[in-house]
Amino acid sequence: MKKISVALVAVLSLVVILSLKEVPVAEAACSPTELSSCSPAITSSSPPSPTCCSKLREQKPCLCGYSKDPNLKQYVNSPNAKKVASTCGVTYPKC
Q: Which residues contact 69 (CB under 8 A, 6 or more apart)?
């Protein structure tokens, strides 16, 4: 019985440790600062850089969250941001 309890505690500890390690990775995936290379294209009429397009594709799953953030929505929902997304071949999500 003692061996089963030790094994159960070990398995539960491993599950907790693995789930804790995944949380920061998920949070780090959505980082609006990753889109800083798109700033010139969003705030002016300049075309987006290849880096901007690459980062925009990486951050696509995050765009709905950004569009709901009071600090970011004016940029993310702007006509220029949608133009940049279109130029980069990124379909703008319907949130």
A: 32, 76
- Structure-token match 């696509």, residue found: 60
Q: At 86, is the pLDDT very low, low, confident or very high (cuts 50, 70, 90)?
A: very high
pTM, whole model, 2 decimals? 0.66
Angle at 32 between CA 44 and CA 76, to 5 degrees: 45
Measured distance CA(10)–CA(26) in Å, rounded? 25
Are 63 and 93 spatial neighbours (Cβ–Cβ below 8 Å)? yes
User: Could you tell me if 39 and 55 are in contact, meaning their C-beta atoms sit under 8 angstroms apart?
Assistant: no
Mean pLDDT of 47-55: 97
